[in-house]
Design a protein that fits this description.
heterodimer, A: alpha/beta, 6-stranded mixed sheet, 5 helices, 39% helix, B: mainly alpha, 6 helices, 80% helix, rod-shaped, disordered C terminus
Chain lengths: 136, 183
């Protein structure tokens, strides 16, 4: 199973903002890629926090990270922490997604510096609203 | 004499042309009707999937993401779902077969499956995933087994229905095919 996949929106000649999507679910990676592509963003989707950090190390131009919370080995919260602890990466906005509405979880992520916390299933309107605010 | 022959030749060709144009007209009309009927069947099947509770509004979201750049997006997502859900269900089967039941592990697998069901709008399956997780929390193995059997049946039914639906859509083809006469 490929762990990296990219999607591009229309107008590839113009510079598209680059979003890194992180989710261990194959189905959810496909859906979030579709949502971001439809919103005219360039998307790279990976299946773990570890691969996300590897990509961030090699690819300097990531404008936003959107990550699932519940992932094996490294949760979205742990990825968020690593990004915010890094001098090179801390400016990149991080958004957390979760299928479970747990207030303590949400607060913890927001306190750690997450831009937003989205409940799954993520809607097109969530992505549009978020990207307009975070990537303006 | 030559003029008469030539005129007869022209008339003959005009008659042939007329029949040829009529043939084209009826073939095109027949193709269009086939397209319309197949599309109508697909629309009816789709409506049933929603009316009978197999799918919820999340499926509309997937359809909204389908466009010229991704013309088969919905079918691709659904195909991925059935492939991935089979893997998760095999893991759950293995876990249930073990003598020592690991309810935490079972719950993790079912949480993943429920997440995928939610993402494609598989409503009945999603509901059954919740029932299973409740039994897990109560460490009720008989309940888990019953619920899992029901989940497998829902999975099979949904798969059949969606495969038939996408097959109809493929038969109908894109709208341009309705106006192109067959050769």
């Amino acid at each position: 199973m490929a762990s990296y996949s990219t999607g591009t929106g229309e107008g590839s000649s113009q510079e598209l903002l680059h979003v890194l999507a992180v989710d261990d679910s194959l189905v959810d990676r496909k859906v979030i890629t579709g949502l971001l592509r439809k919103s005219k963003y360039r998307v790279t989707a990976v299946d773990s926090g570890k691969r996300a950090l590897e990509l961030l190390d090699s690819e300097p131009n990531v404008n936003m990270i959107i990550t699932d919370y519940s992932m094996p080995e490294m949760t979205g919260y742990e990825l968020l922490k690593k990004v915010k602890e890094s001098s090179e990466l801390r400016q990149i906005p991080v958004v957390i997604m979760s299928s479970e509405n747990v207030p303590t979880r949400i607060n913890r992520c927001l306190e750690e510096g997450a831009e937003d916390f989205l409940l799954k299933p993520v809607q097109l309107s969530d992505v549009s609203r978020l990207c307009n605010r975070v990537l303006r | 004499m030559l003029m008469i022959c030539y005129s007869l030749y022209l008339i003959h060709n005009l008659v042939l042309l007329r029949y040829h144009l009529l043939d084209c007209y009826y073939i095109e009309k027949s193709n269009r009707m086939d397209y319309v009927n197949t599309r109508r069947q697909a629309a009816s099947m789709r409506k049933c999937l929603f009316d009978q509770g197999y799918l919820d509004e999340q499926f509309y979201q997937l359809e909204d993401l389908q466009d010229d750049a991704s013309p088969n997006f919905v079918e691709e997502v659904v195909t991925l779902f059935f492939r991935d859900s089979l893997r998760l269900m095999a893991n759950i089967d293995q876990s249930l077969d073990k003598c020592a039941k690991d309810f935490n592990k079972l719950d993790v697998y079912m949480q993943q499956l429920k997440g995928s069901c939610t993402s494609i709008g598989a409503s009945k399956m999603k509901t059954e995933c919740t029932v299973f997780r409740d039994y897990c929390r109560d460490e009720n193995i008989e309940g888990c087994m019953r619920s899992f059997q029901k989940l497998k049946r829902e999975h099979s039914v949904l798969r059949q229905k969606l495969e038939s639906y996408f097959q109809l859509l493929r038969q109908a083809g894109p709208i341009e095919c309705a106006t192109r006469p067959s050769k």
